[in-house]
Design goal:
Largest sheet of chain B: none
Number of strands of chain B: 0
Number of strands of chain A: 0
Order of helices and strands of chain A: HHHHHHHHHHHHHHH
CATH superfamily of the largest domain in chain B: MetI-like
Largest interface: A-B, 111 and 108 residues
Distance between the termini of chain B: 32 Å
Structural class of chain B: mainly alpha
Shape of chain B: flat
Helix content of chain B: over 70%
CATH topology of chain A: MetI-like fold
CATH superfamily of chain A: MetI-like
Oligomer: heterodimer
Structural class of chain A: mainly alpha
CATH class of the largest domain in chain B: Mainly Alpha
CATH topology of the largest domain in chain B: MetI-like fold
CATH architecture of the largest domain in chain B: Orthogonal Bundle
Helix content of chain A: over 70%
Distance between the termini of chain A: 5 Å
Number of domains of chain B: 2
């Protein structure tokens, strides 16, 4: 037990292979297992197909110079014309860069603040804890559209309107409640017995958080990071209200103005832009899902 | 978490030594400071303003734009006496129950369970498709489904032989946006359940199998009870998010045709920003908060029974 507490970081990489091997299949219990696995695969694939079908339109239409609303194999119309049309500094590069600055900044602030806040909420009991958690929960459902009016007023008062810094802080705050709640719940899953051992060795609570708790809750933290970043990346209403200069607007807003021109929608270009706009979050997910593969290190730490 | 390398300057080194209880509580609560400060300035402040504005006739234009007066419960009386309001409340409840409580939650859990048993290839491809639907920004997702369900869209192409072709966004708008929201939101539940399932100790499942529990009975008697806290929490989070969903419905139908898919947030937006009735709009925001509170209290009860 002691050993595992002392070096949870170093044990992590060695055990990451575990989840890639399906646990429940391959027991070799004869035909029943085989039929079961096949059924599971077919059902799963069918659900996956239903998710894939609507999305195909974006991919196909992006490469189709004469795209309409139907999923169509581009065929002889296949071209990069749509991408060429939208890949300009004004339409794509600058909004994308602005979006990255806003979302990386806001996600970083939100996750650091949420982790710090989640630790005492997860580890210590006080009579203020429950009311605080309840208020946090209520605020996750807060319709941001409703509070945008007073927020705009506040930003004018504080001279924060049209500043990246102010917008980052507000975006971080909107994702804070849910981030606190998720981190706190994942942290509850880390048994306190591991920390008590570290405490006896004289570690401070911030040290145990850093060296014992966080390494054990990587899967949870990855889920929180993905969730925060994606939520912010797709949010158009906040930057739309708080940022004014066209050269500070992120991709989420420029796509909204793109869509806003009713009647004259160039579906192909729209699809091409959507593909580009979606790429960063897909990259983030692919990178982090490798880390998510380490989920089972956690089980190892408890067993010891 | 490279950003977590430094402990906070006043970190609780003294924590578990013998200190005065009040001082100990204060020291322990210190890490909460950044979060609390941000929430107070940017969330609590604006909400308090909402609570005040809901009882005034604040407006951007027309009557009330010049002199803001306190009008008591007039905004709420106006709401409770209006058909458009009740229409939006019913639609909001239908949308939330269909797409979050039933759709996203059940499908997300089913996918998490299926993925545990599926072969690696299927698991990866399906996981990518489901998560792909979720990472697509809201506005894009709205247009994906607009294209899919339109009169000359893919859906009608698939079912053309059945003679059921129709513009789904006109004939069944609330169902259309609910399906789109299930499509978009299921990945969240799936990810949460994936993480929770991986935390169920292997020996418990093995023990259940030793005792002869298989398939469905293992799910009902072992897995789901182990997941109960996660289930309730997930339900609460997706319910609250779905209650205030705006962008998806807005891009797909704008609340139409007429008001057939105008949920509470869209009604509120229309009143506050299109018609400039901020007072009435913030009153509606408070009603929305109250609906959320009712759901939350219900789930909290479930959680307490658990403990």
């Amino acid at each position: 037990m002691r050993d595992r507490v002392a070096n949870p970081v170093t044990t992590t990489p060695t055990t990451t292979i575990a989840p890639t091997a399906p646990v429940t299949t391959g027991h070799g219990r004869g035909p029943r297992t085989w039929v079961g696995t096949a059924t599971v695969n077919v059902v799963t694939a069918a659900i996956g197909l239903m998710f894939l079908l609507p999305m195909l339109w974006v991919v196909f239409a992006a490469f189709n110079a004469q795209a309409g609303l139907k999923v169509e194999w581009p065929g002889s119309n296949v071209s990069l014309e749509n991408f060429r049309a939208v890949l300009t500094p004004e339409t794509t590069y600058r909004p994308m860069y602005n979006g990255l600055v806003l979302c990386v900044g806001a996600s970083a602030i939100a996750i650091v603040a949420a982790t710090l806040a989640a630790y005492p909420l997860s580890r210590f009991e006080t009579r203020y804890k429950r009311p605080f958690l309840l208020s946090i929960l209520f605020s996750t459902g807060l319709p941001i559209t409703a509070i945008m009016v007073p927020v705009y007023g506040l930003f004018v008062q504080l001279n924060l309107i049209d500043t990246i810094g102010g917008t980052v802080l507000f975006m971080a705050t909107t994702s804070l409640p849910i981030a606190i709640f998720l981190v706190k719940n994942f942290m509850d899953g880390v048994p306190i017995s591991l920390e008590e051992a570290a405490w006896t060795d004289g570690a401070s609570s911030m040290q145990t958080l850093r060296y014992v708790v966080l390494p054990l809750m990587w899967p949870g933290m990855s889920v929180v990071l993905i969730f925060t970043f994606i939520g912010l990346w797709g949010n158009f209403f906040i930057p739309f209200v708080l940022l004014l200069s066209p050269d500070r607007l992120p991709a989420s807003v420029s796509i909204f103005t793109f869509f806003g021109q009713y009647g004259t929608v160039a579906w192909g270009q729209l699809a091409a832009y959507s593909v580009l706009y979606t790429l960063p979050v897909i990259l983030l997910y692919v990178l982090l899902s490798r880390r998510l593969g380490g989920a089972f290190t956690f089980g190892g730490a408890i067993k010891g | 978490m490279a950003t977590m390398t430094r402990p906070t300057p006043s970190g609780g080194v003294e924590l578990h030594k013998r200190t005065h209880p009040v001082r100990r509580d204060v020291v322990r609560a210190l890490p909460l400071t950044p979060a609390v400060v941000l929430l107070l300035i940017f969330l609590v402040g604006p909400i308090l303003w909402c609570c005040y504005a809901a009882f005034t006739n604040t407006a951007l234009t027309g009557a009330g734009s010049g002199d803001t007066r306190f009008v008591g419960l007039d905004n709420f009386r106006q709401a409770f006496g209006s058909d458009a309001f009740w229409n939006s409340v019913v639609l909001t409840l239908v949308f939330t129950l269909l797409s979050a409580v039933i759709g996203q939650n059940v499908l997300g859990l089913a996918l998490a369970l299926l993925q545990k048993r599926a072969t690696a290839v299927v698991r990866t491809i399906v996981g990518t498709a489901v998560i792909g639907a979720w990472v697509i920004p809201e506005v894009v997702a709205g247009y994906v489904w607009y294209a899919y369900l339109a009169q000359d869209g893919t859906m009608n192409e698939i079912i053309s032989r059945l003679g059921l072709s129709q513009n789904w966004l006109y004939t069944l708008p609330i169902l259309a946006v609910s399906v789109a929201n299930i499509w978009r939101g299921t990945a969240f539940s799936m990810l949460v359940y994936n993480a929770a399932l991986s935390e169920i100790p292997q020996e418990i499942e093995e023990a259940a199998e030793m005792d002869g529990a298989t398939g469905f009975s293992k799910l009902v008697h072992v897995t789901i009870p182990m997941l109960r806290r996660t289930l309730t929490t997930n339900l609460m989070l997706i319910t609250l998010q779905t209650l205030s969903a705006f962008g998806l419905i807005w891009t797909m139908t704008r609340g139409g045709p007429g008001t057939k898919s105008q949920t509470l947030p869209l009604y509120m937006y229309e009143q506050a920003f299109s018609f400039s009735q901020l007072g009435y709009g913030t009153a509606l925001a408070l009603v929305l908060l109250a609906v959320g509170a009712v759901f939350s209290v219900f789930y909290m009860r479930l959680l307490r029974e658990d403990a």
